[in-house]
Amino acid sequence: MNLRAILVKIADSYFVIVVSSLFIGVAFAEKAIALAPYATLFLGIIFFFNSLKINMKEVLAYLHDKRMLFVVNVFMLLLLPLLVYFATSYIFPALAVAFLVLASMPSGMTSPLLSELSGGKQDLALVITVSTSLLAPFTVPLLIESLAGSSVDVGFSTMFLSLAKVIFVPFFLAQFVKRFAEKGIEKVKFSFKPVSVILLALLIVGIVAKQADAIIDGLYGGLAVSYLVALFIVFIIFHVLGYYAVFWRGKEDRITVTICLTYMNFTLAIYLADKFFTEPNVVVPIILSVIPWALLLMPFKWVMKRVEAQGV
Predict the structure, then answer these.
(1) Domain chopping of the chain, boundaries
(2) Digit-coded pLDDT (tens) for 48-68
(3) Model pTM score
(4) Given 1.20.1530.20, 1.20.1260.10, 3.90.1150.10, 1.20.58.480, which CATH number is that of 39-198+211-310?
């Protein structure tokens, strides 16, 4: 394998990128913290590049099963966060707010690709990703203000405007640019992912630098390990809930919903945690959530192959 192939493989690995960013943010916190004020800009650019890949004509063409889309959006953006928050408040109260933020996130922009790789439907994942992303600026502030208002000093409108800046503005700007420069976009499309990965790394480095002391204390005190164990458990539960959320549908649809629900937009979650929360037990677990996010796809694909082989 040549050097270029190795670099491409590393760029495709969120796990490598995130672990490297965590290390740099902690080890060089004094210098890396200079990146923190640019979190909104980094996330906005990432969302802009991701939105350039979305073909709205395709999205509209796939809006044929409105009933299922309604059920999926309500479950993902409202019912799941409520369930996760109240269950965690009872079992592990310190992580209730962190898990609420994670559970309330829209689908990640990689969901269509991950769905296809896992045996799901890329077109359905695309529609769910777009719909949950455009609804999130309304549902996320509503849930956080209603359930975790005591943990955050800002209200619905402030959080809504912050989300609008990093979701609505890049999304609609991308659709506008595509109308006039679609051929030009196709020529430079190959650069979107590498640039987005670099910006994601910079975003994580800056945010981690602000929480470097808390992360180090957590490592020494064993809290980081507890957070990771809890995160792996909740992500496994997300897989199960996603698969049975649309139990009346076929296997491909169920896989797609599972991917969209579980592999949420963790970049947006990290941004929100940094911008509106100061408690380490909120910010640190959300940062660490990228580890189960990156590692559980392969086991899920293996389980789905076993299910298919057994005809379940």
Answers:
(1) 39-198+211-310
(2) 988 888 877 777 777 777 888
(3) 0.88
(4) 1.20.1530.20
